[in-house]
């Protein structure tokens, strides 16, 4: 205690102690000031890169490190796929597998009921056909009847246009290769652009009518029955590759009541594997197939956009996000989708257990979004001073590279 010291020493120690207290206070003030100054500098650098850009950065405790132009809702573009992925994981589960059902009647008519599988690609069809032929035998089939009643014939997704672009492919209960045809046209000759995919009569006629010369991919958007018929032709081609034979025609209709399936094909990819590929490749067709299944699974078939939006909104309401995340469909192709930056940042906290499904690199997990006049980027990033942060970037421009310059600045300056 101070009273135990001689007087002279007491005065000296009191002065020393006062000096220590004063310097400690000054040092504490300086330490508090440095991060604030550094943060202000980081904000200035980010603002200099994109003065009109929306940038929100939130640390693990929810503190907003940067909040630039965050007051207005923005169009998320394909960043909306993060929400679809989360909804799917919550409603369907990581191990969910889409199913396609096959039935055979006494006249050896094969009925195929589609279940909205988004990944009925050629490699999957080859596996499917091999097991199917083993189950039904190699005797000729009298025909194929396609049942796509799980999806209404008039289903339309906002933002999907009637074009040849692959990203405008129609959603369907039974479609193959993302409801597109990939082929090469040379004059009046058409061949498959993929070794694993047989060319079919419909593919040839569609390419001759609609595709330019050379290699291209066209979507089957003109008429839902065209995509359905192409699925039937391609499945028939794979059945014949597997040793079976189809002698009759391909038609559409319903599976007769009481007929039991001879084979149920479960997609070889789990939902989580499909989502990882969706978030990497950003295929709008796959996103909305999954989005439609969310409503169909929870509320029963047939699927509808209204059912899926109902389920989505109920789940967003539960987390206080219905006003800040407003969906019109599940892929982000519609400019009617509207998010707020703070709402998406809060949502990213919900999605964090699934962050590894996102594209990754250099300490980041992210999803991009691009539609004309909109470039977005959102996800998680490791920073030099604030650890892992959640970030939202939205630009009203076509400068996709600027998003990543802003992300690099966030990582290096924060």
Structural notes for this entry:
The chain is α+β, with helices and mostly antiparallel strands. Helices cover about 40% and strands about 20% of the residues. It has ten helices and 16 strands. The protein has helices at about 5-50, 80-90, 120-135, 200-210, 225-240, 270-280, 285-300, 305-320, 340-350, 400-414; strands spanning about 55-60, 65-70, 100-105, 110-115, 145, 180-185, 190, 215-220, 250, 260-265, 325, 340, 360, 365-370, 375-385, 385-395. It has a six-stranded antiparallel sheet, with helices on both faces. Strand 6 and strand 7 form a beta hairpin. Helix 2 runs antiparallel to helix 6 and helix 3 (about 120-135) packs across helix 5 (about 225-240). It is elongated, with a radius of gyration of 29 Å. The two termini are about 45 Å apart. Residues about 1-15, about 15-20 and about 25-35 have low confidence and may be disordered.
Tell me the radius of gyration: 29 Å
N-C termini distance = 45 Å
DSSP strand tally: 16
User: Biggest sheet: strands, sense, closure?
Assistant: 6 strands, antiparallel
Helix-strand pattern, N to C? HEEHEEHEEEHEHEEHHHEEHEEEEH
Strand order across the largest sheet: 2-1-16-15-14-13
Helix content: 25-40%
Binned strand content: 15-25%
Quote the average pLDDT: 91
Tell me the number of helical segments per DSSP (H or I, 4 or more residues long).
Answer: 10
Taken from the alpha-carbon principal axes, the silhouette is: elongated
Show unreliable segments. Answer: 1-14, 16-21, 26-34
